[in-house]
Write a structure and sequence with these properties.
- It is a single chain.
- This protein is mainly α and 215 residues long.
- It has one domain.
- The chain contains 9 helices and no strands.
- The longest helix has 36 residues, at 46-81.
- It is globular.
- Residues 36-45 and 205-212 have low confidence and may be disordered.
């Protein structure tokens, strides 16, 4: 029992911290060798990242986001597999990564939409869950021009597809909990959407404040 608790704690610690790291700032340092917080308007949001690195930078950012979510999730599965809980370990690590994206320790608990982290968490449990979540998130965001809409739709479809295809009960509950956290975090955005006050983004011109995270 003690060893099981230690494995859970290690998984939670690594996964949450990984989720808490700003992928935009990490990408600017590792891929472009520049500090995002010291450039442009001096913030680490998507608007400043796009202003500095453009669409090619966005593509590299997305790939780095996937890797940064995938590694701690695989680690969690590997560690919990010692106790015969591989799928539960994947889902638990995914839950912690999503927590880190939504409430990051290193950014005063002001996080991002966690779309990639949730999609990766679903993907490792069942490809159909992850792919469905990613496609719906992209389509919803593109059609509405609001990232919050994409995130909310993704969370809903992850719950539905997860119930249909994920057989492991513990893993399913953790996946549903991850998606529920995304919905909970976006409730203020949902209210703004219903009031017609949620800002929209546009790729026809420079992505300014409209891409800054806001919940």
């Amino acid at each position: 029992m003690f060893a099981y608790i230690v494995l859970l704690l290690v998984t939670a610690f690594v996964a949450y911290l990984s989720g808490s790291i700003s992928t935009r700032r990490l990408a600017s340092r590792l891929l472009f060798h520049r500090d995002l917080a010291r450039l442009g308007r001096g913030n680490v949001w998507l608007s400043n990242f796009h202003r500095l690195f453009g669409i090619p930078g966005f593509i590299k950012l997305g790939l780095l986001e996937v890797v940064k979510a995938l590694l701690p999730i695989l680690l969690g599965g590997t560690l919990l597999a010692i106790k015969g809980k591989f799928e539960a370990g994947l889902a638990f690590a995914g839950f912690c990564v999503v927590m880190g994206r939504l409430w990051p320790l290193f950014n005063r608990f002001e996080g991002c939409h966690a779309c990639v982290a949730l999609a990766v968490a679903g993907l490792v449990l069942s490809p159909s869950v992850g792919i469905a979540g990613a496609v719906v998130a992209a389509a919803g965001a593109w059609a509405s021009k609001m990232f919050s809409v994409g995130a909310l739709l993704e969370a809903i479809i992850v719950i539905i597809t997860g119930i249909l295809v994920v057989d492991n009960e513990i893993a399913l509950r953790l996946l549903i909990a991850s998606a529920a956290l995304v919905i909970l975090r976006h409730l203020p955005a949902l209210l703004r959407i219903l009031r017609g006050q949620e800002p929209r983004f546009s790729f026809r011109r420079d992505l300014t404040y409209k891409l800054d995270e806001r919940f």
